Amino acid sequence: MKIFLIFIAVLFLLIFFWFFIERHFLITAKADIHLSNLPHDFNGLSILQISDIHHRQFGGDNSKISNIASYLSPDLIFLTGDMVSRNETDFSSIGILCSRLSSIAPVYFVFGNHELDFSGKKREKYISTLQNAGVTILDNSKVTVYRNSSSIDIAGAALIKSIYRDENRRFKNLSTYSLSQLNSDLGTRKRCTLLLAHNPLIADTYAQWNADAVFSGHVHGGIIRLPFIGGLLSPERRFFPKYTKGVYHLNNTTVYVSGGVGKVRLFNPAEVNFITLYSK
Q1: What's the chain look like in SS3?
Q2: What domains are defined for the chain?
Q3: How does the average pLDDT of the chain come out, rounded?
């Protein structure tokens, strides 16, 4: 019994030390995604996805992230929400990072749940910070990108606050987000479409909308990742969420979930994501 207790104590001590060591890691997770509807002119399109930075800093103004972007030289950069946390008021750091990123490639942003809590002058300040840094904000909107005679749409669904927290700021009575709501927000899908949507837990709706590829974050990789199981917990305090990190296939829709950069995490290092799209 004594040996067992010593073993447990040593194990917890090792985990404790690893938690602080892992906080210094920022990895680049890479994936190749093959899409049936991707025009051949876009074959090999590279995307750097950055999600859920919150308060986290890797170098001054997250210079390590912009250095990675510069080295990888992606065709597009997607910011999939929660670049800052809801209690932040100074957006200068994210503005500097976004300016650096937009000098490398076109940058597209969609709101996360923390940013949906911004209102009034704070929301205006945040939006102007991103826009002045050269970021295209997709607030329930689309842009069409052309290569030669081909085109694809990049769409951003802002979603709604009530899918994250109820009116009492709790997680009990969360709203759904249906296909009709997505159609109302974005219209129908017309061509090959890359959808930015912060929350992957409603991926079934994105698949019903026929998005070709979806880029999400929000779940922080499940906070703690367990071998052979995956992510343990969602921000909504739900155990073993269905979509936590990596590639998922739902009929003709491929969902890519970033583990993100910020928040408390264990066996789940901070990451940015480098995704290359190929035509099938």
Answers
A1: CHHHHHHHHHHHHHHHHHHHHHCCCEEEEEEEEEECCCCHHHCCEEEEEECCCCCCCCCHHHHHHHHHHHHHCCCEEEECCCCCCCCCCCCHHHHHHHHHHHCCCCEEECCCHHHHCCCHHHHHHHHHHHHHCCEEECCCEEEEEEECCEEEEEEEECCCHHHCCCCCCCCCCCCCCCHHHHHHHHCCCCCCEEEEECCHHHHHHHHHCCCCEEEECCCHHHCEEECCCEECECCCCCECCCCCCEEEEECCEEEEECCCCCCCCECCCEEEEEEEEEEC
A2: 27-279 (3.60.21.10)
A3: 96
